[in-house]
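Schema walk-through. Below, the input block comes first and the output block second. Nothing else is stored per chain. Lengths vary across the set, and this one has 200 residues.
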Amino acid sequence: MRSIGKVFFLLLSMFLFTQSLVANEQQELKKHFLSKIDEVILIVEDKKLSKNDRNANIVKALTPMFDFELMAKLSLGNRWKELSSTDKKRFVKLYVQRMKQSYSSKIDAYKDEKVEVKRLEQKKPDRIALITDLISKQDKLEIVYKFHKPKTPIETKDNWLVYDVEIIGVSILKTDIAQFREFLQTKTITALMDALSKQS
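--- output ---
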């Protein structure tokens, strides 16, 4: 009985230790996320910066937190395998430029909104969903940032990286997947890249 009790105690200790590590990791992610938000707000409120410099600084601040490369790959689904190494690099570059331009354009709509973290959900060891509210005087929007933790750390990137964002239930990644799939029903991936290059 004592040996069984020792095994149970050991397993319980390991479980509690693991849960403690998970909680600590979640809190670190939350703290890092909020520090990034504060950094962006400071840039936005800097009246000395031109619009282009402001947007460039914000994109630079946020880039280490986003896995644009993974988003590019996922946006093509199985069609990604059809690309050569050269075309993969070209598509990723165009996708990243498109995403950065999209975020830059949304910055212009900023009007003293506040970000409030509601909760974190971790259904897998390498996946965390950070649920937030974007609060303005007139409205409140729920925005979910979906993070993944790469098996191998990526140089110049954070440990946890955003691979999708849901705004009031609409996934940016799923929207891209649907748009690209529709485009590729009648056109080639080369034509898709040409279309993306015209947007950059």
